[in-house]
Amino acid sequence: MSLFLTNTPTGKKEKFEPIQNGAVGMYHCGPTVYDYVHIGNLRSWTTADILRRTFEYTGYSVKQVINITDIGHLSGGEDEGEDKMTKGLKREGKPLTLEAMKELADFYTESFKKDLVEMNILAPHSLPKASEHIAEDINLIKTLEEKGFAYKTSDGIYFDTGKDPHYGKLGGNSDETDEHSRIGINSEKKNSRDFALWKINPELGFGSPWGKGFPGWHIECSAMARKYLGNHFDIHTGGIDLAPIHHNNEIAQSENACECQFVNYWLHNAFVNVENDKMAKSEGNFITLKTLSEKKFLPLAYRYWLLQARYSSPINFSFEALESAQTAYLKIIKFWKTLPDGGKINEGYKKNLIEAMEDDLDTPKSIALLWELIKDDRVSVEDKKTTIGEFDKLLGLGIEGSANKLEDVSTTNLPENIQNIINKREDARKNKDWKTSDKLRDELKSLGYAVEDLPEGPRVSL
What's the burial of 294, exposed, middle or buried (CB within 10 Å: 0-12/13-18/19+)? Predict the structure, then answer.
């Protein structure tokens, strides 16, 4: 296998070389579970899923970790301000207690896990919660103290970035006047970029040698990554917004604690934008998977839409674009259903697919190859079905599962554009406008739907 990945520290495609032959350790920043995740967030874990599928398809043993941040994440990643979990408690009228915080976190964690299933994202091997790793946080902070990288202020323990000449390996976190430093106002800090390892809160939190409070958001990820993957592992991923602050801080505290390299390859996915602005809860422009379902969009159609772009390229979301993606996705499902079993894998297409995925996870090329295969008359229908199945192992589009679920499409569960055509066609039939009715039937067919006129009403199928 010759997999090349764009490594954030260099900005270049680099050949992947595992620390241990035939094995890969991967850590992916998970959600802060104070609210539902939005579809922009889901791009990060879809990217991680594609990466895992590529490794496993080519024979690697993978250990994958996605963390759950259920404490300690201040809004925007600053060291000052309101904790996101506290913000969630206030929003839902719950008391400010650790018990209520756990209740809130458990609810949104389960919602997140359901979203992973809906998106056909493989369950990680470990899904650790920050609240269950306080001892690991404390031990790591103690190590940094012993090595002279931590100091105490009136409100907590901070990492001294001035002691680390290599701080900021991922770029984007420049000196004191840089707006990206997100450090808030704290005159007790030695350097503007210093960040909290432990925040003291006498009223709410966990016990520690420095007083009651919460671990810093950054230390949580370092501690959990070390526990499940070791001091040095292969790949760390996340959204591009995490690179300048969160991931640079993870590197600084982890590498100075162990005196070793933390991660070999850093992969960052670009934003999903709405009208060219980053999708974010703080901006009020976020869309959840539940929103898509309410509008009759299939979660796997959204996955298909995501895969039409490189993970490292920003993409602009619109419902019109998702409608087109769903139409294409349903055409694949309908075509697959018509194919007989019993074929073999077409080795040429398999080779081209692997080469595309080895080139920095080129999912757009893989999608194009899938359509090329569907239209290729030189490949038998039996071989097409088997080969499409191989594509699905890498792309995770859930083709067979969707085909089984969508035997018939209820007219109460159709995309809005399809339902509008059905309604217009029914009006035309009532007016005995058969020409318009036939035209609309042909339009539905071009979009991947078949309609059968029954006494009780139209029956729609793929």
Answer: exposed
